Amino acid sequence: MTAAARVWHRFTPQQRLMRYAFYLIAVAALVQSVRTVEIIPEFLEDAPAQIVDLFARMWPVDWSYYPKTVHAALIETLHIATLGTILALGLAFPVGLMAATNITRWPAVRLFAKFILVSSRSVNSLVWALLFVAIFGPGALAGTLAIAFRSIGFVGKLLAEALEEANRGPVEALVASGAPAPTVFLKAYWPQVQPSFWSIALFRWDINIRESAVLGLVGAGGIGMALDDALSLLYWDQVALTLLTIFSVVIAAEIVVTYIRSRIL
Question: Most buried residue, 2, 17, 103, 150, by CB count within 10 Å?
Fold first, then answer.
C-alpha cells in the first residue's frame, strides 16, 4: 500500500487566515478613507482643465525675479539647512549616547533619551517652525531651530543603533586593560561608528534642504517665503521660477551627497 503524496503549501492554515484578515481590514480601511475624504466628482472632472490653465499661467517663466528675490532667499535656505544640521549633530550626539544600551547602563537615562528622540521625530518640521515663529518671530532663526529640533530624533536614533551594532572585541580588550571610559569610546566605539555618523549627517543635510525650502510658508525664512509671496499675489510666472529653483537645488544636493558618500566615506 503506497503512502499518499504529501502536498507542500507555502502558508499554514493559520497564516492564510491572518493574510485574509489583513486583506479584509485593508479593504475596509480604504473604503472608509474614501468615504471620509468626501471626494467631489465635479472637481475631479474639472481637474485636467485647471491643470492646463495653471501651467499656461506659469509660462513664460519670469527669470528677472531670480536676482531680485529668489537668490537671496535660496542662500538663506542653504544657511538654514546647514546651520540646523550642525546644531542637530551637536544636540543629537549626547542623546544618541544616552539611548545606546551598550553605552548607558541606567534604564531611566535610556528611557529619557528615547523620549527625546521620539518627541523630535513625531513633530513635523512645519509644526516646529510654527512654534519657534511664535517664540522668536518670523525669520531664519525660527527655521534653523525647527530644522535642528526635527533632526535630533533622526540622527540620535541612527547613531544609537550604530553604537549598539559595534563589534565588542576592541571594547572588551580596552576594558580589560583598564582603559577609562572616554578612551574606550574614542578608541573602540568611535572608529567603528564614524563612517555611519558622517553618512547620517550628510543624508540628514540633504533632507533638511528639502524641508527648509517650505518652512517659509509659515514665516520661518528661506525660499519658501518667496514662494508664499508669489502665491499670495497670484504671480504664477514667479511661482514657476521659484519651484524650478527648489527642484534644481534639491537635485544638486542629492548629487553632491552621493558623490561625497561614494568617494570619501
Answer: 150
